[in-house]
């Protein structure tokens, strides 16, 4: 999966949450900037797992706080095959 494909998929997920595309910067914090609560973030990460065909271990959830962190995580996971469901 390319970086552009990751960006496009994430844009669709955030649009489904009602987030404006103009708010989607790499520095945008899920809570502070995008107004997501813990349930929204859980839903987002579950949708990421489904759409990208990966499993995000519980211990990794806490470190995904911004769009940039999520993108970097997805690039690593989708290119390396780590996190793929068994």
Q: Just give the CATH class.
A: Mainly Alpha
Biggest β-sheet strands, sense, barrel:
none
Count of separate structural domains: 1
Rg (C-alpha, Å): 12 Å
- Poorly predicted tracts of residues: 82-86
CATH fold group: Non-ribosomal Peptide Synthetase Peptidyl Carrier Protein, Chain A
**Mean pLDDT, all residues:** 90
Structure description:
It is a single chain. The chain is mainly α. It has helices spanning 3-16, 38-52, 58-61, 67-80. It has a single domain (3-17, 26-80), classed as Non-ribosomal Peptide Synthetase Peptidyl Carrier Protein, Chain A, CATH 1.10.1200. The protein is globular. The model is unreliable at 82-86 (pLDDT under 50). It has four helices and no strands. Helix 1 (3-16) packs across helix 2 (38-52). It is 55% helix and 0% strand.
Short note summarizing the structure:
The chain is mainly α.
Question: What tags apply to this protein structure?
Answer:
86 residues, Non-ribosomal Peptide Synthetase Peptidyl Carrier Protein, Chain A, 4 helices, 55% helix, globular, phosphoprotein, ACP-like_sf
